[in-house]
Every structure is written in C-alpha cells, then in structure tokens.
Design goal:
The chain is built from 18 helices and no strands. By secondary structure, the chain is mostly helical. The longest helix is centred in the C-terminal third of the chain and has 31 residues, at about 300-330.
Length: about 325
C-alpha cells in the first residue's frame, strides 16, 4: 500500500490524527494514569530490571557484598532511561508517520496507539521522555559521584543509544545499527554499568556477562520488525528485516537465540560462569517452538504473534534463570 504522498508532521508542524474509531473512544475513557502507564510500556520494564539483577547476582557470586539500596537505586535509574527511550522513540516514530502508516500493529509492536489516536499529544510525550531521561541522568550522576566516575561515561553512552535510535538526523535504526545499539544498551552496557555500581570498578568480564541477555532483547526487537517492516521501510527505517526481507531475515532468529545459548555454554566451559547457570538452557524448547513459527510463517503476520509472545517470555525466563544460576553458584558452590 503506497502512503508516501501523506505529508509528514515534520513538514507541516501539525499533528496527524487517525480517523475516529471505537478504539479511540475506549482509549479516551481510560484514566490518565492508565494511559501513561501504557505509554511508558511499564509491563516491559523487565528489559531494564533484568540486566541489573544479573549484574547483582554475578558480583555476589564473585564474592562482593551487595547494598540493596544501591541495587534498588540502580533499577530506578535504568527504568527511567528505559521509559525515556520508549517515549522518545514513540515521539519520533509518530512524527515521521511510521506509526500512523503501520497497519500491522499487535500488542508487541507498532508503537504507541495513544499518539496515533490523539489521546496524547506529541509534545506531551516528548516532554515526559525528557523528564525520564533527566531523572535517570540525575541518578547516574549521584552514583558516579558517590561510587565511581566510570558510571558517567557508561550512562551517557547508554542514554545516547536510546535517544538516537530513531532520531531523524542520526537514526541508528535507519542505518542498520539500531539492533546492535539496543542489544548493547540493554545487555553488556547495562550489566557493566550495574556491576560498576556494585564493585566500584569495571572489567571486561562484567561487560561479557551481559551478552546473553543482550542477544535476547535484540531478538525481541528483531521479531517485532517482521510486522513493522512495510511501515518502517516507507519512512526510511531500514533495519535488518527491511534490508533482507522477511524470507531471508527468518534465518536470523535461530542464529541470535543460538548465540545466546552458545555463549552461556562457552562461559561455563571457561569458568566465567558457574555450572549452575546451565539452568538457562531449560528454555531451549521454547526457543525451538518460536524458531519454527518464524521459519515457517515469516510472512503470515497474525501467525507470528505467538512467537512474539514466546520471545518476550524467553527474555524474562532466561534473565531470571541466569540470575538464579549465579546465586546458586554463590550459595552452593560445586567443589
């Protein structure tokens, strides 16, 4: 469907609105609190919490003591940055008309319905995103001044990756490096930053411990690109699936998840992780089921929804299992 003749709000200075629907009426009947909870995508804040839990469990296994207050403050900071990232990406995707053009929206992809349906205004969402980034920045600054200055550059890089993902001038997603930015930001970089908060200094192993969960958040983004492909391509958001097409891109799904499992096995073999973290592998049957759906139904967008759900489920389960594995290794070391 050709939509390229539709004017962009970037050019007109006006906000586009989808036609009035029953869905819009239902949205307008929601409480403002519920609208903002959903706009923040609060149910998906696990992407910001799990790396911190993995970092805490890892340093505990390495023999460090943990300050629960610092753990909670770090989680507050990562959630703030995640909320800011979600909202500023919604803002830019709405402004470039990508979300307006998207006719394949599911509960897992397609951006904010509240901007498209006119329940929230773009300026409100932009302001809220900047407040969230500001709060995360203040928490990071406090931790940098009280624990380690290493936190400052790590936090700045993470924040920039989130802000520039679809920012029109940089547009990491459009340049084909958005996937790496998301995997890095919500994986190795976030785990490293949390480890520095808990230990006071960085090392390469802290960074590497974020590889498995980084692969999984990348996978969540990747599978959501399948239904978003047409709308994203129409506005120059040339991510991996747009560049390869769905048929070729389907091979990426088992490769990415396989990389996560392979890294855990390698880490156990090299002594980087305790043997207990092999519990991570119990999710392989879910990975196989989701991979089969993506491989066989890559162009049947409604049929991909269960695989999208399973991918999010794997991210959650694998993150918790990796955390549990490190804690088991600390309490029940194998002699």
């Amino acid at each position: 469907m050709q939509l390229s003749t539709r004017a962009s709000p970037w050019d007109s200075g006006q906000e586009l609105r989808a036609p009035m629907t029953n869905v819009q009426v239902k949205m307008q009947e929601m409480s403002r609190f519920k609208v903002w909870v959903l706009e923040l995508r609060a149910p998906f804040f696990t992407a910001a919490v799990l790396p911190v839990l993995i970092a805490a469990a890892y340093v505990f296994w390495k023999g460090y003591s943990l300050d629960i207050g610092l753990v909670l403050l770090t989680i507050a900071g990562t959630i703030s940055l995640h909320a800011g990232t979600n909202m500023i990406n919604d803002y830019f995707d709405y402004k470039n008309t990508g979300d307006i053009r998207n006719t394949a929206r599911t509960p897992f992809n397609g951006g904010s319905p509240f901007l498209v349906q006119g329940v929230l205004r773009a300026k409100q969402v932009l302001a809220a995103s900047l407040v969230a980034f500001g709060l995360g920045g203040l928490i990071g600054l406090y931790l940098a001044l009280t624990v380690s200055l290493w936190i400052l550059p790590i936090g700045i890089i993470g924040g920039l990756l989130g802000m520039l993902y679809v920012e029109p001038r940089i547009n990491l997603a459009g340049r084909g490096i958005g996937e790496i930015a998301v995997g890095l930001g919500f994986g190795p970089l976030m785990v490293l930053g949390a480890c520095v908060v808990f230990t006071g200094s960085p090392d390469i192993m802290q960074f590497l411990m974020g590889v498995p969960i980084g692969c999984l958040i990348l996978l969540v983004l990747y599978i959501n690109q399948f239904p978003d492909m047409d709308a994203d391509a129409s506005v120059g958001k040339n991510h991996w699936v747009v560049r390869m097409g769905r048929k070729r891109a389907r091979a990426g799904y088992p490769i990415i998840i396989g990389t996560s499992y392979a890294f855990v096995l390698l880490s156990i073999a090299l002594g980087w992780m305790p043997l207990h973290t092999a519990i991570y592998l119990v999710t392989i049957p879910i990975a196989i089921q989701a991979s089969k759906v993506v491989w066989g139904r890559f162009d049947d967008l409604p049929a991909l929804v269960p695989a999208q759900a399973k991918t999010i489920q794997m991210h959650m389960l694998c993150g918790l299992l990796l955390t549990f594995g490190f804690l088991l290794g600390a309490f029940l070391p194998i002699i």
